[in-house]
Amino acid sequence: MLEGIDAALAVYPITLTNLTQRLVIVVGGGPVGERKIKGLLITGAHIRLISPQATAQLQAWAASGQIEWWARDYQTGDLAGAFLAFAATNQRLVNAQVTQDAATQGLLCNVADAPEAGNFHVPAVHRQAQLVVAVSSSGHNPKLAKRVRDQIAAWLATYLPQER
Predict the structure, then answer these.
(1) What is the per-residue pLDDT for 3?
(2) N or C, which end of the chain is more exposed by having fewer CB within 10 Å?
(3) Do residues 54 and 28 make contact, with C-beta atoms less than 8 angstroms apart?
(4) Do residues 95 and 155 share a domain?
């Protein structure tokens, strides 16, 4: 780390593109996994959920073919062929295993319960015609990032007319 640089600011923001049909694996079928998948659906990625249980919404997405659901516990080897991984369970040991496996395979991995353990964070996002606004607290204060995102969205609605 560079001397005098706040670790929370030592990030390199990017926007991932061309995710269509890329395999993205989300481990964890609770509300956190659901939020991650909801944000991924717009990308056209091939989303695989690995979790013995899933929220009603995740089950509906699986039933409609929007996501693939492996209704079982995560196992080492499940990340084979993935482009991105999300460790989104409520079990620290499972998330740690997903993180370790992703690192071994050189995958980008988001870790819900320990943001510093992964190598990317998901910002609070606002989308409108030809504009995507992302606000990040580097995983340190997601509520603040969401509040700022919502304030920006409100400003855009007032001062920047939506394109039709």
Answers:
(1) 66
(2) C
(3) no
(4) no
